[in-house]
């Protein structure tokens, strides 16, 4: 009777493993939304816990069959053969569910990381847009233009590492058919805004550089003119002091 019960337990265990394999491993998943992906991750975590909890039951079966084999070798031998098959299938099931759970957790982590990089780069784009807008109504002063140019250039020196991560993470998920529509839409919007603002910022940078150069040249010309006027004033003052008649001087002095 004990052998019959153990045989029944082995059959039930094998049936449960078959159902678990169909439910958790053979089901086709399509992760088209973050909610679907997150639910799949949580489901696989529960599946992993469920399967690992059966380890106690498997151990009890194994111990009982060993005890029976010690008492009734003939019955125990048949059960031991079936047990080996169940143990092998159980270990395989554990490994496969662990693997799938790990894969889904990595995919979810990849998605979260992509969102974090997009948030960082979006904040940078907002900052860049603000700096560009600040250059559109500057006072006509050398210091103001120079400060605006330096401020814009400091933002443009932003490293490209984050954009590289966005491109690689997005492509990895899209290649796996995971959230591909959502990610493609996000990347398209981000890249379009990045290209537009980058070109606008570089154009403003060039315009400010040219404006600054013109203002410096004008400032230099005014400085030279001022120095010449001071020198001329000094010269004319000396003429007046010496009571020199203008008609006695060269034409340019007159």
Q: Please, could you describe this protein's structure?
A:
This is UTRO protein. This protein is mainly α. The protein has one domain (1-211): Up-down Bundle (Methane Monooxygenase Hydroxylase, Chain G, domain 1), CATH 1.20.58.60. Helix content is 85%, strand content 0%. The protein is built from six helices and no strands. Helix 3 (73-134) crosses helix 5 (161-175). It is rod-shaped. The mean pLDDT is 88.
Offer a few descriptive terms:
Methane Monooxygenase Hydroxylase, Chain G, domain 1
Low-confidence stretches: none
Mean pLDDT equals 88
CATH topology: Methane Monooxygenase Hydroxylase, Chain G, domain 1
Report the count of strand segments: 0
Structural class: mainly alpha
N-to-C SSE string, H for helix and E for strand: HHHHHH
Give the class-level CATH name.
Answer: Mainly Alpha
| The CATH architecture | Up-down Bundle
Q: Which range does the strand content fall in?
A: under 5%
Shape: rod-shaped
Distance between the termini: 137 Å
Largest sheet: none
What is the helical fraction, as a range of percent? over 70%
Coiled coil: 3-64
Organism: Ceyx cyanopectus
InterPro entries: Spectrin/alpha-actinin (IPR018159), Spectrin_repeat (IPR002017)
Keywords: Coiled coil
């Amino acid at each position: 009777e004990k052998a019959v019960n153990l045989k029944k337990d082995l059959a039930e265990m094998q049936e449960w493993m078959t159902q678990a394999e169909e439910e958790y491993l053979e089901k086709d998943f399509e992760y088209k939304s973050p909610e679907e992906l997150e639910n799949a991750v949580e489901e696989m975590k529960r599946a992993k816990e469920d399967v690992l909890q059966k380890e106690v039951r498997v151990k009890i079966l194994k111990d009982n069959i060993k005890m029976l084999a010690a008492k009734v070798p003939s019955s125990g031998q048949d059960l031991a053969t079936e047990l080996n098959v169940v143990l092998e299938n159980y270990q395989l099931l554990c490994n496969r569910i662990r693997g799938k759970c790990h894969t889904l957790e990595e995919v979810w982590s990849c998605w979260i990381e992509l969102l974090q990089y997009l948030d960082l780069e979006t904040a940078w784009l907002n900052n860049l847009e603000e700096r560009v807008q600040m250059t559109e109504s500057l006072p006509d002063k050398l210091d103001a233009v120079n400060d605006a140019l330096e401020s814009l250039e400091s933002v443009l020196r932003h490293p490209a590492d984050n954009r590289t991560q966005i491109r690689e993470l997005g492509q990895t998920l899209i290649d796996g058919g995971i959230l591909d529509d959502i990610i493609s839409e996000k990347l398209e919007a981000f890249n379009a805004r990045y290209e537009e603002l980058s070109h606008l910022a570089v154009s403003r940078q060039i315009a400010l550089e040219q404006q600054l150069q013109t203002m410096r040249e004008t400032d230099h010309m005014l400085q030279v003119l001022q120095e010449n006027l001071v020198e001329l004033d000094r010269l004319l003052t000396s003429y007046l002091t010496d009571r020199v008649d203008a008609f006695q001087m060269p034409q340019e002095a007159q």
